[in-house]
Each structure stands twice: as C-alpha cells, then as structure tokens.
Design a protein that fits this description.
Blueprint: E1 13-15, E2 28-32, H1 42-50, E3 56-60, E4 72-79, E5 82-88, H2 95-99, E6 108-113, E7 127-134, H3 147-158, E8 161-164, H4 167-173, E9 180-182, H5 189-192, H6 203-206, E10 212-216, H7 225-234, E11 239-243, E12 260-264, H8 271-276, E13 280-283, H9 298-304, E14 308-311, H10 315-321, E15 326-327, H11 331-343, H12 348-358, H13 363-378
Parallel strand pairs: 2-3, 2-6, 3-5, 6-7, 7-8, 8-9, 10-11, 10-13, 11-12, 13-14, 14-15
Antiparallel strand pairs: 1-4, 4-5
Helix pairs in contact: 1-13, 7-11
C-alpha cells in the first residue's frame, strides 16, 4: 500500500546484510535525499510505479555513523523489485565503496538523481542514461550549503534528461540544460476521492469544534506560522488542524493558540479520513526562497477529496488553479475567505472545475510519459 505527503511508510522488511543477496543486477539506481519511510511524496509515487517494470535500488543519504563504525548499510526490501539502501558511512562520497557490495552491473541502464548532493557518485557506477528529477530548489532551503549550487551545475552537465516538479522549476532549469521536461505534481485520485464517501473521521479530530480548516504535509520553514496564528486569533470558533512532521523547526516555533491542533504524522492510508473531517483545506505557505519554485502535491489531493482550498500566492498554484482556489496575502484575507466559503452552500461550479483538472492528470500517466522519454533517448 502506498503512503504519501504527511505520512510514515511502514512497508518493507529490513534485512541483515548476511541475508541479502549480494551484488544484484539493477535496471535503475536512484539517489534520494528524502527517506522512503518519512513522507510519501513525489519520489515514492514515481519510483514505486517504475518498480512495476524495473528492478530498482534507491540509495538514501547516510545514516548514523561514528569513527568506530564499519562502513555498511541498512538494506530494506519494499517489494521484490524495489530495494532501499541506507548507507552507514561518514559522508556521501563514501557511499561508493558500499555500493560495490550491492550492485553487480557493469553498466546500469538508468541513474536517477533527486539531489545534486549525490553528484560525487556519478563516477561510482556506469550509467547508460542519467536522469535528474528536480522536485525542489534545494539551494534555497534553510541551512542549504553553498556547495549544493556547484554540485547541481556538475549534475546538470552530466545529466542526459532533466525532469522538473513544476513550471517554475522548468523555467529555471531549461536555461541550464537543453533536454528538460516539465512534470508537475500529480495525484492518486481514487485514493483521495474516498473522502467523498462515508468513511470514518479519525477520533483525534472528529470531536473538534466545527468548522475545521486543515493542512497536511511537512511543517517547516515553508509554512507561514505567524499568519496561521493570527488567523486563529481572529477566528476562535474555527478549529485549525495541522497534520505532519516537523522539519528544521521545533515545537517551540509552533503557534500555541488553543484552536490550533497538531496531530503529528499520519499514514497515507489515513489521509482521506482526515480530509473527510476538513470543511476547508489550506496551503498556508510563506512566500520565501524555499517556496519560490514549489508545486504542492496536496493541491490535487485536496481537489480529489472535493475540498474548498485556500492558499497563499504560490506561483505555480496561482497560475494553474486561479479559477478554483482562493488566494490570501495575510490573515485578514485568509479569514475573509474562510467566512465566505463556509457561507457558500453551492460548490458545484468548483467541483466541476476540479473534475476537468483531475481528468487530465495521474501519477500513472506521468510515469508512462517519463518512461517513453527515457526509452526514446536510450534507443
């Protein structure tokens, strides 16, 4: 079962090194900065679908290591075609030695990179085709090292194909590479559409005072916490629900208003149940460097659940969904939209607009197009 945006991923069995069949053949090796078991988003949606027809090793960033440790790795089998490797090494460069124990190929058909931080490993294995699937402008994130800019230049100079997770990223990367394709975030519509049915609302939000305005996703420097706090103070009768893990911020950074409720991470399976409990779905992103190029996956997931949406003016959301998403610049405007949406009973026109958008996108279609591009390049 797949898991997504604000969720733990519990699938797969961790296997001791002595039980792992050493040096297996792989059709694709993926290098990803996001943990498979953290939140289920673009990499998991795409790579899980590729694994239906390809044998894949996904390599994560190094896990805990000290000078007394032996360089090794944690090997997890998600399914027979998809393996996760968590290297226990000092740094990314040291992953090259560990890979020799697991990869048998002399040449690997596809090397897939989600982060330029892995670019030193381009020479560790021989790839017939190198793909850079750029889902974020990582150089603009909080505490990003300056080195990542040079690493991305190196990765782009060696990549055969570049995919981007949104139009803003596409416009940026096409100035740096001559074979760039735009694949914005898509949606597993059938999964989230179950929120339209009579499924149960989870106990931790089912008894909250109505209405409920909710968000799910990582809670980090991309969220406008002050706007949420101010909106909550203006509308004490509204319950604001924040679902997801914290990243790069602490509990001390979170607004403490009594009508803001934090649930922590929830499984992908549960997300439609939580959406069932939302009266309005929100995307309260701050407008800063970290959000300049984002294309939030949750936009379409909210739509699939039939929820009215309020967002800040994220470029890709504004340009693609301006006719069916409400946009707010501050707490006053956010509050006004909440009041207006709650007073509006007839949402048929918005649902019709959602339907048109959803009919033209799916993760299955995205992956099929990606596969076609790779096959055409390789032929």
């Amino acid at each position: 079962m797949e898991k997504n945006t604000s969720t733990k991923q519990g699938d797969g069995a961790v296997m001791p090194k002595e039980e792992v069949e050493q040096q297996q053949y792989y059709d694709m090796v993926v290098f990803c900065h996001l943990r498979w078991q953290f939140v289920y988003q673009r990499p998991q949606h795409i790579i899980s679908r590729f694994s239906k027809s390809m044998k894949i090793l996904m390599v994560e960033e190094p896990v805990g290591f000290n000078n007394e440790d032996e360089a090794t790795a944690i090997f997890t089998e998600v399914n027979p075609n998809l393996h996760i490797l968590q290297p226990k090494v000092r740094d990314i460069e040291a992953i090259a030695e560990v890979l020799k124990d697991y990869v048998k190929n002399g040449s690997i058909p596809v090397g897939w990179f989600y982060s330029a931080a892995f670019s030193p490993l381009l020479s560790a294995l021989k790839f017939d085709t190198v793909v850079y699937d750029c889902m974020d402008e990582l150089a603009l994130f909080k505490d990003a090292p300056q080195l990542i800019i040079d690493q991305e230049k190196y990765l782009l100079s060696n990549a055969d194909i570049v995919f981007t997770g949104g139009k803003s990223l596409f416009e940026s990367k096409r100035e740096m590479h001559d074979n760039v394709y735009c694949f914005p975030s898509s949606v597993d519509e059938a999964h989230f559409a179950t929120a339209l049915n009579g499924i149960e609302i989870p106990a931790d939000i089912s008894n909250l005072p109505k209405p409920v305005v909710g968000y799910f996703g990582v809670i980090d420097e991309r969220i406008d916490l002050e706007m949420i706090a101010e909106t909550a103070r203006k509308m004490p009768e509204v319950s604001f629900v924040m679902i997801g893990p914290l990243a790069k911020i602490s509990q001390h950074d979170l607004p403490k208003e009594a009508n803001i409720h934090y649930t922590g991470m929830k499984s992908y399976v549960e997300l439609p149940n939580y959406l069932k409990g939302f009266d309005i779905a929100m995307m309260p992103f701050a407008l800063n460097d970290a959000t300049k190029f984002i294309s939030p996956t949750k936009t379409l997931e909210y739509m699939a659940a039939g929820k009215a949406i309020i967002s800040t003016r994220i470029t890709d959301v504004l340009r693609d969904y301006s006719e069916c998403v409400k946009f707010a610049d501050d707490a006053d405007e956010f509050s006004k939209h909440i009041s207006n949406l709650l007073a509006t009973q007839d949402q048929l026109s918005t649902i019709s607009q959602y339907r048109e958008i959803l009919d033209n996108t799916s993760w299955d279609a995205t992956v099929a197009k990606m596969q076609s591009i790779i096959k055409t390049f390789a032929s």
